[in-house]
Design goal:
The structure is a single chain. Helices cover about 30% and strands about 25% of the residues. It is α/β, with parallel strands linked by helices and about 190 residues long. A seven-stranded mixed beta sheet has the order 3-2-1-4-5-7-6, sandwiched between helices. The longest helix is centred in the first third of the chain and has 11 residues. The N and C termini lie far apart (about 40 Å). The model has no long low-confidence stretch (mean pLDDT about 95). S-adenosylmethionine (SAM) binds next to α2.
């Protein structure tokens, strides 16, 4: 997983462009590779990784042990559909290769709820044209997205259409990905 997600994570981290003193929540942090990259930035205020899988959280914990011990990182077990956080705690949200598992319509709304006004969510998904060819990504486990479906998902969750930017990206090995930046309107 770490290898397959490396390029999408690199693209998403660049799109996040974290600034001094900001806080970040990663949804579906998996083995914690993106967190490791983010924690190299010494100036972030608070970094939280959330995942449902105990196994993934254990990997993320091992990979980021020093940051955990220093109190720079918190790892939390939780479900996208019901985030265990108060509203508006994050300046930025990262969600790489996780939207396929957001089966409940509540999930992206939850992400928007915990984003502060003016904050942004960066979301990466492999385009359905590529996903359809992969046997492991069948409709019983994965929701698939193209540009229009991803736009609709973000609008349904409450993001304004003019606050959403989605670009097609090369995710490596000829795989087409979608990189979305959705901003929560101020006030
Ligand atoms: C394909 S992995 C992506 C991991 C990571 N973002 C990366 O790029 O390496 C998807 C992750 O989402 C987590 N996940 C799936 N459904 C979830 C849910 N409903 N709530 C929280 N985490 C979930 C899985 O445990 C897994 O770690």
């Amino acid at each position: 997983m770490a290898f397959a997600n490396a390029k999408p994570n690199t693209l998403a981290l660049a799109a996040l462009s974290m600034r001094e003193g900001e806080s970040l929540l990663e949804l579906g942090c998996g083995p914690g590779c993106a967190l490791q990259g983010l924690l190299r930035l010494p100036h972030l205020a608070r970094v939280i990784g959330l995942d449902w899988s105990e196994v993934m959280l254990a990997h993320a914990s091992r990979r980021n042990r020093l940051a955990l011990e220093a109190g720079r990182l918190a790892l939390v077990r939780g479900d996208f559909a019901r985030l265990p956080f108060i509203a508006e705690i994050a300046d930025a949200i990262l969600a790489v290769n996780v939207v396929y598992f957001m089966h409940s319509p509540a999930a992206v709304r939850e992400a928007r709820r915990v984003l502060r006004p003016g904050g942004r969510m960066v979301l990466y998904a492999t385009d359905r044209s590529a996903m359809r060819r992969w046997r492991f990504a069948g409709p019983h486990t994965h929701r698939l997205f193209d540009y229009n479906r991803l736009t609709a998902l973000l609008i349904d969750a409450g993001f304004a259409a003019d606050c959403i930017r989605i670009e097609g990206v090369n995710a490596g090995l000829g795989v087409m990905g979608l990189l979305a930046v959705a901003r929560k309107e101020k006030g």
